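hey can u check if this looks right to u? its 360 residues, i copy pasted from the old doc so theres a chance i mangled smth
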Amino acid sequence: MPENIKTKTSAIPDTILIVDDSEINRAVLANIFEDSYRISEATDGLEALEKIKTEGSRICAVLLDVIMPKPDGMDVLREAEALKLTSRIPVFLITADSGEHITSEAYKLGVMDVINKPIIPYVVERRVGSVIELFMARKQLSKVVEKQQDELSEQEKRIAKLSLGMIEALSSAIEFRSGETSAHTQRIHDITEYMLKHTPLGDNFSDEEIRLISLAAIMHDVGKIAISDSILNKPAKLTPEEFEIMKTHTLQGAHLLSNIPQMKESKAYVYARDIALHHHERWDGKGYPEGLKGDEITIWSQIVSLADVYDALVSKRVYKDAFSFEKAVEMIKNGECGVFNPYLLECFFNVENELRSLYC
């Protein structure tokens, strides 16, 4: 099948590389995207790697089949990760084998999403398109920042402006994926800020540090951009296998933030990466992903963790109705949502009545 190549050249990545040894599968995927993107195809892993290396500047996404003659899709993914290509080109695994070992390794290697066969065209189009938009926005933001560097006389002003823009872009991407997130992220920011400003938890922080921590809290769930819609918005309890995949959003969030060079220049980066990675750790060591316990967990991640649980309890979700404030407090006190730092809880309960005004 010939490649569908636009005659107009552009420095902007505009090509989706489809890698599958089945001509029919390639045709189905090409049909979904050919009106919006240039399509390039590879029939095996070797051809895919060659095209990634030679056409990499034009590729905006790779749709990679798993089961192919050697090297198979996982081999291609391992090579791409070794070449640090997955940090700048989003890779989507297309597979009929959705076993936990495949999915788990794929996410660890930097894949953005795992799409199961048989594919649903409109679902694939949205999932792939949303991630491409995120990567394109990131690249465009980088170009804008580079252009402005010569115009800004004060480095601190540039970094502050960049930080806010990057955080807003990432938060918008998550809002696009999950209907619950738009108000949720703002409340996590507000709860974190209030607790640091109005309890002794913030005594050792300057006003600027509190501002940066609260801003970083917005990105606590940024890794959910890598979780498939079928799991992210499932209107029922997740299976053990699905929960293991959901848990990877902490690793994916830290990975994503670590691979945005401009974000690493921001003073909020240290807080943001730590919060994204550790906001599901618990005081007794029974959290994830690293099983940290006690003061091994930073106080800002502990605060965001508690704020996240509280907001989830008192808000309606696709899988549950909202609990009353009184019921939420009771559940947190009884340890039904995990074990928290006793002093953190004391400070939280002292201001919880005031936090309820955020939900009016």
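Confidence is low (pLDDT under 50) at residues 1-10.
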